[in-house]
Amino acid sequence: MLTSDDRTAIHDLLAMHGHLCDSGELDRFNEVFTDDVTYDITDFGQEPLHGVAACAAAGRALGEANPVGHHVTNIVLTEQADGHVHARSKGIGIRADGSCASVTYEDTVVRVAEGWRISRRTILARRRPLGL
Question: I need a labelling partner for 28 at 20 to 30 A (CA). Which of 9, 14, 34, 82 fits?
Answer without folding.
Answer: 82
